[in-house]
């Protein structure tokens, strides 16, 4: 078989097999991604629901906890608990007063909250205090067997949540309520004073769940420890997921309560659902997110169909074109490939192929040009990296200049000897100055950190040169977290102090502003010092005037300017605006980057 025909055959086989493998792999991987994304999303929804519901239970529990520390309620219960009869009575006038104050407090709570339907306190034999929107039917001993009462007695330090339920001792209560109960103890000796029962309707629970998830497909369910549904989102046309008589099926409940993991796949009438659930710590309830797998996988199926259609069309076109071009391409391409392989191994020598006037010849010429550009670019990058390291090293060396460090430490020692209150702020400023300078070896930091570095430097100098200058720093909130290279503002501030303010008679001022202007960030450092003429400004930028290393960090304007250009490009630089005897403004321009 000829090379061309063999190439066509094997190319076709490889393409078809590769596409089949790719298609199957894509469908599998994409389907897993969709399922995992849905699990992640469902876990987030369920976690939010659990958090909000737990917070709501804690909010209700705070009412019960507050009852344990209410002075008037404690007095009333202490007087009444040992005088219980079948009917309500008061031991004395003080008991009446304590009852009225406590009753008014619970009444206010009932009026302020539309979700609370009743607040009651039960003793050992009778109801001691209540506020409810329903009528109360007198009960004697039967309430002591209710779970909300019994559980609160057995575990007095924990809140108990029961329901949904309808209390037989409340007349006119047609709606299910959730009950929050807790034992009330004498805060002096810990003795039993009663059990507080707070009934809430399901409106707030429904509102929390509906606010978290309101999609048309899938739903949220909340079930209590017995498997009774506390909340179930309206499901539209979707199946009922084995919810019978307002209770979840035993099979699904056992799977959820097995504790192996917090998600599972469950089938109802032949249709699979992805269920993600999480237990509420305080109540023992479970919050579930149920999503049909058919809905999750719909996107993968549609994408697979599209890929198959495109593949068939592309394959047919490729086979036709391959026959036409194979003869003219295979041979020269092979020759070119052998030459290119040497480049792949790091040999950047020009290709040597017989001259051609077709596309292969053009490709060879272009490739040789590209090799030249790559070699030039490689040299340029190496030089730029060396320049970056050189200027950054100069900046770091200047920042830890021994003269500046010695002068500052000398000032700290002097302050310590005279017990000056500024010794701690100056020491702290010096520590922060060097910490930000080093920046854990990183070249970039935020605008906020760079200006904090300048603030620390100004703090030190303002303490060394008392009443010589004042300063202000303004930073636009939008640019606080944007990135810049380090050590570009402090050298400018240093120049303002030593060459502007220090030579001025009287007190000077230094102002620093950072703000966004279009796609750029502007950092202005202004002083009202002696100013400079144009020649002096140019000399600073060109490095012909060095900073005084004996007094400051020694980082020159040229260093800052060159580092900005090397890192951000030549479109970004330092500009000096100065007028003799009027002051100087230095404008730093860098790109807005997060």
From TrEMBL:
Pfam families attached to this UniProt entry: dCache_1, HAMP, HATPase_c, His_kinase
Source organism, top-level taxon: Bacteria
SMART domains per UniProt: HAMP, HATPase_c
Domain named Histidine kinase: residues: 485-594
Residue span(s) of domain HAMP: 327-379
Coiled coil: 367-394
Subcellular location: Cell membrane
Transmembrane segments: 7-30, 306-330
Name of the protein in question: histidine kinase
């Amino acid at each position: 078989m000829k090379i061309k025909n063999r190439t066509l055959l094997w190319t076709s086989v490889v393409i078809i097999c590769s596409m089949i493998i790719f298609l199957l792999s894509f469908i599998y991987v994409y389907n897993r991604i969709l399922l995992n994304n849905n699990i992640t999303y469902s876990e987030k929804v369920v976690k939010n629901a659990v958090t909000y519901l737990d917070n709501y239970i804690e909010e209700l529990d705070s009412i019960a906890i507050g009852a344990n520390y209410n002075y008037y309620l404690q007095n009333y219960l202490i007087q009444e608990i040992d005088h219980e009869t079948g009917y309500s009575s008061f031991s004395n006038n003080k008991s009446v007063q304590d009852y009225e104050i406590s009753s008014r407090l619970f009444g206010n709570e009932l009026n302020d909250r539309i979700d609370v339907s009743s607040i009651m306190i039960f003793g050992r034999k009778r109801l001691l205090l209540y506020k409810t929107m329903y009528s109360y039917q007198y009960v004697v001993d039967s309430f002591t067997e209710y779970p909300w009462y019994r559980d609160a007695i057995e575990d007095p330090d924990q809140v108990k949540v029961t329901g949904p339920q309808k209390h037989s001792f409340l007349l006119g209560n047609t709606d299910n309520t959730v009950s929050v109960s807790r034992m009330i103890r004498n805060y002096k000796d810990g003795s039993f004073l009663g059990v507080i029962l707070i009934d809430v309707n399901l409106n707030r629970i429904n509102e929390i769940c509906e606010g978290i998830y309101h999609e048309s497909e899938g739903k949220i369910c909340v079930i209590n420890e017995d498997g009774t549904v506390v909340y179930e989102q309206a499901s539209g046309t979707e199946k009922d997921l084995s919810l019978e008589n307002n209770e979840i099926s035993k099979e699904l409940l056992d799977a959820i309560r097995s504790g192996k993991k917090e998600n599972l796949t469950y089938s109802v009438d032949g249709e699979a659902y992805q269920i993600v659930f999480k237990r509420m710590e305080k109540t023992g309830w479970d919050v579930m997110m149920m999503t049909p797998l058919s809905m999750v996988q719909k996107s993968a199926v549609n994408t697979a169909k599209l890929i198959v259609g495109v593949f068939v069309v592309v394959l047919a076109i490729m086979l036709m074109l391959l026959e036409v071009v194979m003869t003219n391409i295979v041979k020269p391409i092979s020759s070119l490939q052998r030459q290119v392989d040497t480049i792949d191994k790091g040999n950047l020598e020009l290709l040597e192929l017989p001259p051609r006037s077709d596309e292969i010849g053009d490709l060879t010429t272009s490739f040789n040009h590209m090799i030249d550009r790559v070699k030039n670019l490689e040299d340029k990058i190496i030089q730029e990296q060396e320049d970056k390291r050189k200027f950054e090293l100069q900046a770091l060396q200047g920042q830890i200049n021994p003269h500046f460090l010695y002068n500052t430490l000398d000032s700290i020692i002097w302050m310590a000897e005279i017990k000056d209150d500024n010794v701690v702020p100056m020491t702290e400023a010096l520590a922060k100055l060097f910490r930000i300078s080093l920046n854990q070896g990183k070249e970039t930091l935020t605008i906020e950190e760079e200006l904090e570095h300048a603030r620390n430097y100004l703090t030190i100098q303002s303490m060394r040169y008392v009443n010589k200058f004042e300063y202000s720093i303004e930073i636009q909130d939008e640019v606080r977290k944007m990135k810049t290279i380090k050590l570009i503002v402090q050298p400018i501030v240093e120049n303002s102090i030593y060459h502007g303010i220090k030579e001025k008679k009287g007190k000077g001022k230094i102002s620093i502003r950072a703000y966004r202007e279009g796609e750029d960030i502007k950092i202005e450092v202004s002083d009202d010092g002696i100013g400079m003429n144009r020649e002096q400004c140019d000399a600073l930028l060109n490095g012909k005037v060095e900073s005084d290393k004996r007094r400051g960090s020694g980082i020159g304007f040229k260093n800052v300017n060159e580092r900005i250009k090397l890192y951000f490009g030549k479109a970004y630089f330092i500009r000096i605006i100065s007028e003799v005897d009027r002051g100087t403004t230095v404008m730093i321009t860098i790109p807005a980057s997060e």
